[in-house]
Design brief:
Elements lengths: L4 E7 L3 H11 L5 E8 L6 H14 L7 E3 L13 H4 L21 H11 L5 E5 L4 H9 L7 E7 L15 H5 L1 H8 L5 E4 L1 H4 L3 E2 L1 H9 L3 H21 L4 E2 L3 H8 L4 E6 L1 E3 L10 E3 L11 E7 L1 H12 L3
Parallel strand pairs: 1-2, 1-4, 2-3, 4-5, 5-6, 6-12
Antiparallel strand pairs: 7-8, 9-12, 10-11
Helix pairs in contact: 1-2, 1-10, 1-11, 4-5, 5-7, 9-10
Length: 314
């Protein structure tokens, strides 16, 4: 059996972030979570770091180290998404305040120190929110770029266009300068854009399956997706809400569920109408060197089978 994949989850929970974290913590044979770094995004940092600890305790893992990172984008004012995730970011279930401590170290320092301490090519970064913490780490310590095994991130969109502006997906839009740094860093990058995550729709039967687990985790996940589904169904007219961030964790467990292309992806930082756009050279017409695997297809049934089975273990 291969050793578990060692990861740092960088996150701004968010109900779908919560499910991504739960999926990782439910899979210790395959995934070793070295720590969780919180970033401002869906809601401000005091809520995202608290939510990360709430989710760890829900999973029965108060031993996981949670660090607070950056409270604002590198160069811009913070844009948040309470209109989607509710005032707390985890609206839906009623979950107790966390008893586990927040670590004293800054999240960016934890990322830098971990990548320098661990053997090169052994730590995967899994950003689920704006890329501020990861970009800050790469800027402060350029030497870590060559030590990263892979960056597997949820963000961006190409054929599905934007969800916060007509051209931009939320995570990239919140801090496009950070995204630009990350996409140019030279580490292997795998992207879960809206093109894939909009295929991970929580239909009623899929949500019923979470609730039918009958566990605190299963019920909480069903209540979370019930909550943000109302917004997404109205917006997209789809049969359910997309579970964006769990695609990152699912890819680590079952890469065969996904298909995409290794292409060039550039981040628009100055566009009048397109700031935060992920310009993916899907047809390879730019002549620019590929720098990311941009996913385009998901086996949704396989994804939900995996998710339901793993959540049932917690």
């Amino acid at each position: 059996m291969t050793a578990p994949r060692r990861i740092i989850i960088d996150t701004d929970p968010g109900q779908d972030d919560a499910v991504a974290i739960l999926l990782a913590l439910a899979s210790p044979e395959e995934i070793d979570v070295l720590g969780i770094t919180a970033v401002a995004g869906n809601v401000p940092l005091p809520l995202t770091e608290r939510n990360a600890r709430i989710v760890c305790e829900l999973a029965g893992r108060p031993d996981i180290r949670v660090f607070a990172g950056c409270d604002a984008p590198l160069k811009r004012k913070l844009v948040t998404a309470e209109h989607v995730h509710g005032k707390t970011g985890l609206d839906g279930p009623v979950l107790p305040m966390p008893g586990m401590p927040l670590q004293a170290v800054h999240g960016v320092d934890f990322i830098v120190e971990t990548l320098r301490a661990e053997p090169p090519g052994t730590v995967t970064l899994c950003p689920l929110g704006p890329l501020t913490n990861v970009a800050a780490a790469l800027t402060r310590a350029p030497d870590i770029a060559g030590r990263i095994r892979e960056i597997v991130l949820m963000g961006g969109a190409y054929f599905e266009v934007g969800n916060i502006t007509p051209a931009a997906e939320f995570n990239i839009y919140v801090d496009p300068e950070a995204a630009d740094i990350v996409f140019k860093c030279g580490a292997p990058i795998t992207v879960m854009p809206l093109d894939v995550t909009h295929q991970a729709l929580v239909t009623k039967p899929r949500n019923d399956a979470f609730r039918a687990l009958g566990t605190p985790v299963g019920v909480a996940v069903a209540e979370m997706t019930d909550f943000f589904e109302r917004f997404d169904r109205e917006k997209y007219g789809s049969a359910g809400a997309p579970l964006h961030d769990p695609c990152v964790t699912a890819y680590l467990l079952r890469p065969d569920l996904f298909a995409g292309r290794h292409v060039n992806v550039e981040i628009e930082t100055e566009g009048r109408l397109t700031t935060g756009m992920t310009v993916a050279d899907w047809w390879r017409v730019s002549g620019r060197a590929p720098n990311a695997t941009f996913m385009g297809r998901l086996d949704a049934d396989g994804f939900f089978e995996l998710l339901t089975e793993r959540l049932g273990r917690l």
